[in-house]
Amino acid sequence: MHKEHFQAIKSLRCNKQILITKPNRGSGVVILNKSDYIKKMGCIPDDTTTFLNMGGVHVHDNTAKTKQ
Question: Which pTM was predicted?
Answer without folding.
Answer: 0.56
